[in-house]
Amino acid sequence: MKALWKIALVLLAGGLAFIALGLSLGANHRGLYINKYGLNLSDENMATAKLTATEKVTEIEIDIISANIHFIIADDYGLEIYNNNIVNFEYSINNGKLLVKEKESLSFNIFNFNWKEEYVNIYLPQDATINSIVIRNTSGNLDATALKCETLNVHQLSGNMKMSEIQASSITVYNTSGDVTLNQVVAERFNINITSGNFRALNFETKDLKAKTLSGDISISGELNGNSDISVTSGRVVLELAGAEQDYNRNIKVTSGSVKINGKRDGAGHVDFKAANSLDISVTSGSVKLTFSK
What are the DSSP E strand ranges found in 84-217? Predict the structure, then answer.
């Protein structure tokens, strides 16, 4: 037991010595970590990578373990990464494809006094149109504004998503834990699946909606043209839709909860107005509230 205490004290003393050394070398050294190369001081400058494209970007693929992702309007195409494990990142812009990929880390922090946000920033011109955007992130938030693309696919394990002013032919979102908030998003097809979290869309427009939450609310205002399939196991469905009630056929199933149409209590069931649009809503435990603008 005494031997273990001695080893612990030696490691602690060594760590403190490295911290003191790091501070003496400058404020950019914020911690101590171990990787396959041994014991290292983390360096803020060495944790940052930047690339500017000399060509037009038409495809984006991001596959990372932990960082926040931001899409930012800029003059040129480019990327910027800040991560304490930057050595585990592969990043490039080649043949029109912007790639950011994080490999499994073999390092771990012993001491870390760096509370700076770890991020991946993607820079795009205002008029950029991307053919394909694929994002896979284990832990982190997504913030995207003013995107034009053919397809957008986001798979996230933990984190919140905020997207605004997005135009796409197809958008697919999978989020295990976290809220998804949209504003001014227009998509021909939109598919979202959330295990635990809320989905809120303002000024939203689509012709083919599939929205599912296991635990969380679905709240949408805008235009739901074509077919809309909405499923909630535990939570509320709140829709504020353009047009009149008669513009939407509806099939509502609620196992335990209430249904309100334009503020009045209504029973679940099937109503066919011979309309071009349809709402198929299923709620196991919760409520449904539909409001129409006309």
Answer: 89-94, 97-102, 108-112, 119-124, 130-139, 142-158, 161-177, 180-196, 199-215
Question: Tens digit of pLDDT for each residue in 196-237?
Answer: 999 999 999 999 999 999 999 999 999 999 999 999 999 999
Q: Is residue 75 left, alpha or beta, with left meaning phi > 0 and alpha meaning psi from -120 to 50?
A: alpha
- Asked whether the beta carbons of 281 and 250 are under 8 A apart, the reply is yes
Q: Is 21 left (phi over 0), alpha (psi -120 to 50) or beta?
A: alpha
pTM for the predicted model, two decimal places: 0.83
Query: Could you give the CA distance from residue 183 to residue 193 in angstroms, rounded to a whole number?
Result: 18
Name the token pair of 216. 């969380």
Rg, C-alpha atoms of the chain: 24
pLDDT tens per residue across span 150-169: 999 999 999 999 999 999 99
- What torsion, rounded to 10 degrees, do the Cα atoms 58, 123, 188, 155 define? 90
Return d(Cα 210, Cα 96) in angstroms, integer: 31
Q: What is the largest CA-CA distance in the chain?
A: 82
Rounded CA gap, 19 and 25, in Å?
A: 10
Cβ-proximal residues to 150 (8 Å cutoff; 6+ apart), any chain: 129, 130, 131, 132, 168, 169, 170
Residue in the block written with tokens 């771990």: 108
**Domains defined along the chain, listed by start:** 1-43 (no CATH), 48-104+115-292 (2.160.20.120)
Q: 212: which 2 tokens?
A: 């599912």
Residue type, 133: I
Q: Tokens for 28, please give them.
A: 């950019």
